[in-house]
Structure formats: structure tokens, C-alpha cells
Amino acid sequence: MHLPGLFRDWVEPLRDAVRRNLEQPGPLGTRYGKSSHAGTFHGDRYMWTSDAGFHDYVLNGPGGAIAARLMGATRTRLFYDHLLVKEPGSEAPTPWHQDLPYWCVRGDQLCSLWVALDPVGPDGGMLRFVRGSHRWSTHFRAPDFQFKTDYASELAPLPDIDADPERYPVLTWEHVEPGDCIAFHAMAVHGASGNRHGKRRRRVISTRWMGDDVTYREHPNVTRPIRDPGLRDGDPMDSDLFPVVWPAAD
Fold first, then answer.
1. pTM value?
2. Which domains does the chain show, CATH number per domain?
3. CB neighbours (10 Å) of residue 207?
4. What b-and-e string marks burial along 130-166, b requiring 16 or more CB atoms within 10 Å of the CB?
5. pLDDT-based confidence at 87, cuts 50/70/90?
6. pLDDT, tens digit, 9 for 90 and up, residues 159-169
């Protein structure tokens, strides 16, 4: 779902926060893609735990309320924030994947709000989705963004989406502006090309949100939070690492 302009007032503060992160990445900062890929695809997570700008955005921005309305949740917790920067000429694609198999959670009320900080078009790494895949019941293997291994390797491999466009029709957009948001469910199959635009970055901040039915999932092959949240398998997500953002506390 494309939600235009809802984060327009946050573009400049977030650009400042991104600049700080690029100058000094956090402990989870990484370069995505193969070593042979030209250009840089930079990622980082849980920036809100160490940077005041990201902290202000996730706790005081509109994301929690928007996610609650989309999910039909009575309250929303932040799962984490995720920075995705494709520099001009970055070859590394975002592989087709679902988000949920990577995550240490179970539940249906899980969504992402992908907010562009630059104009993005088809040549700049625009998100693409397999239409209707958020309703699929199958969880698929989760490809490593560095193309070295897979998470959730016990699951079936994802179908070859590009080889069968009639069976797997793709939904995308021609253009999004800074401050626009693309919202999607954690089971939606999605990906993106590299940034073939020669002069323009693709800076994106994606926040991940949890609703009422989400519980903690222990599994040896998932991406880990920035620190131990103090939860066990099946616990509700009651941890200061996953704050309730909406409704705001009095």
C-alpha cells in the first residue's frame, strides 16, 4: 500500500540521522550484497537505541498509529528500525523474500512502514511485491542479503518469481517521493533491484511494528535483536527493547 506524504515532516531530521549513521555505523551496521557487487548497499538496525534522531522518530512519529490502523491492533509495539541505503550505482539487489522467517516473533499483526528519504523510481531500487503473497500460508527460506547462506534453512526455497510472471504477478510503483510510505505485511514476498541511478542515493528507513497477537520465538537460525530482550519462547513481547508506541502513554 502506497501512502503518500505522511512522513514529509520527518524527511530532513531523518536525513541528518542517516548522515550520522553513515559516518559512524552502529554495531549491527553492515554492507549488503556480494563482495563482487559494485557500489555500496549499507544497512543498520536498532539505531533508535543509540541515536536521538531515530529515537524521536520511532517514538514520536506517526508510524505507531498508522501501523495500528492498518493491522486493526489495539496497541502497537516497535519491533525495530532498519536503515537501507543504496548508493548511486550500487549493484546489490534486495532478493525476493518474506520478512517473517528472519524474525524472532510469531503472529499475524506484523507490518513494515518503508519510508523513502529520496525520490525513488524503477531504476533506483523501487520495492516490488508478488501480488497477494501476504495471504500465502507457506513460510519460505530467508535469503541472506550478502548471498552467503540462508536463514530458516529448514524451510522450502522460495519459488523462482521472475521465471513465472503469470503465476507470480508483480506489484510496484513508478515513483515515490521523499516522505512517502509503502506499508506491507511481514508475509508479503518482496524485493528490489540495485540502484542503477547514477547520481541519486536511495535512503530508506523501514520501521517494523507488532500488534496484539505477537509473541517471542526462539529459534537458532533467525536474526538476533541488538541485545537479549529477556524473553522466552511464547512470551508476549513485554520488553523495553520493544516499547509500546501507540497509544502513547499519558
1. 0.95
2. 2-218 (2.60.120.620)
3. 25
4. beebbeeeeebbbbebbbeebbbeebeebeebeeeee
5. very high
6. 999 999 999 99
